[in-house]
Amino acid sequence: MTERDSRDRVLSAVRAARAPLTIEQIATATGLHANTVRGYLDVFLAAGSIAREQADAHGRGRPRWLYRTSVPAPSPYQRLAEALSMELSEIQDPTLAAATAERWAHSLPDLPVAATPDEAVMEAADALNRLGFEAELSPVGDAISVRQCPYAALVKDNPVICEIHAQLIDSLLEQTGQPVRLKSLQVWTRPDMCVATVARPDLEPERVIQPSKVTA
After folding, report:
1. Which of 41, 63, 160, 213 is most buried per CB count within 10 Å?
2. CATH number for 41
């Protein structure tokens, strides 16, 4: 059985069940080790293709997690995220990782053409929200704060996720038809927050004052 077959078996077991399942029940149903099942479930959770809830507590100890099919059905953005998650485990060569990032970036549905740079950045932020993030514009409109990353638990073992997200943001901005592009993606500027800085030719300060150096 290939790794993809194992993943598909876990997802099929959750989706076919009439009631939420524990990791142990899924392991029994699929014939896989519980730790293997747990790893696949984390990927599916990050992609939004399944959901989990805590079982009622009985006795001492923490309640167990129960896994079930997500409701409502995944949006096109969530389906993209799920497919992207499946690709991650098969990426070994850095060149292939970069190619995968670019391919998924251009697989997103086209955004409406924006009338202004402000509208372009707003469209990109809205797309990130639909993808499962919590995106918020800076007051000036030259940065997007991104929280609630659906892949937060996977980034440590798959740092290419951040490169993919950077390409996604840049592609979203490009699709708007405005001369606005991603300048940089600052990863984990604060816990659970990344910051995408945006290059905008329409935002040029009238003056830039550098701090004075104080000499003793």
Report:
1. 41
2. 1.10.10.10
